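Subject: SAM-dependent methyltransferase structure
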Amino acid sequence: MKNCINCSLCFKSSTWHCPHCGFLPAQYDNHVSFVCEEGIAADTFNPKIFAKYATIDTSHFWFSARSSLIVDLVGRHFSKATSMLEIGCGTAAVLQAMKGAYPAMALSGSDLSVEGLRYSSSKKLGANLYRMDATEIPFTEHFDIIGAFDVLEHIEDDRLVLRELYRACNPGGGVILAVPQHRWLWSPTDEYAGHVRRYTRRELVTKVEQAGFQVERVTSFVSLLLPLMLLSRLKQRLMPLQKEIDEGFFISPGINRILRYVLSFEQFLISRDMSLPIGGSLFVVARKKPQPTNSAKIDV
C-alpha cells in the first residue's frame, strides 16, 4: 500500500493522488519525488562518484561480484518473491542484474540523488524509480524484498531507516543489506564516499533485530582481498587521496579478472552456507515474519 506523505493515509491506488487530503507528490526530472529541496542536505553521497561508477558498474570486479552475490541470495532466501525495492539504487547495477536473473519480478528503485536516478533511468529497465529519502518510505507492506546495498553507512539515523524498511516490507518477505565492515578499516576513502560509519557484525545484527526482523544469514564478503584493502589504506599516506581512489577503481583488465575470480570463489563458499568471518563488506539477510492474526500471508 501507498502512504501519503502529507496526511499519512495508507491507501491502495494506481496513482499517488491521496483520496483523503488530495496531496499529489511532485514530479522531478520525470520521477515521482517525495523529497523537498531542503531534504537534499541529508544526501551525503558525493555526486561526482556517480560519473565514475557509471563507467564500471557492471565490469569492475567488486561491483559485478556484489551484484552476483545479491542475485544468489535472492534465489536462496526469497525464491517466490515477485517484487523488490532497492534503496539507493545509484546507477542501477543491481537492478540490471536482477532484471537479467528474474525478468518477471516487479522492480523498483529509489535514490535521494537526482544524478543517480538519471543514470538508473538511462538503462531503461522498466523499473519504477522514485526520488525518496530512506528515512521516510511512502509504502506499507508493499514489497517482498527490500535491498539496501552500501546505503546505511551514509545515514545518521540508520535505526529509523531499518524501521521504515520493516514497515514497507510484506510479511514473509525480508531485506538484504550490505554495509562496509570493520571500524579499523576507516580511512579518508570513507570520508570521500560520505560514510558516517563502518559496521561491526554485532552492531548491524542488533539494529536489524531491534527493527523487528529475524536474521537468517550473516556473512562477510571481500575477505580474501582484505590484505589488499589494508595496503590501499597505507598508500593513502603516500599519494593524494583522489589518485589512490581512481587507481582502486580503474585497474587493468587482467588484474580485474583475477580479482573477480577471487570473489567468485568467496561467493561459491557463501553459496555452500559458509559464513566468512571478516571482510571489507558485511551482508545480512533478514525476514519479516508473518503475523499469526494476518490472513493475507505472503510466502516468499
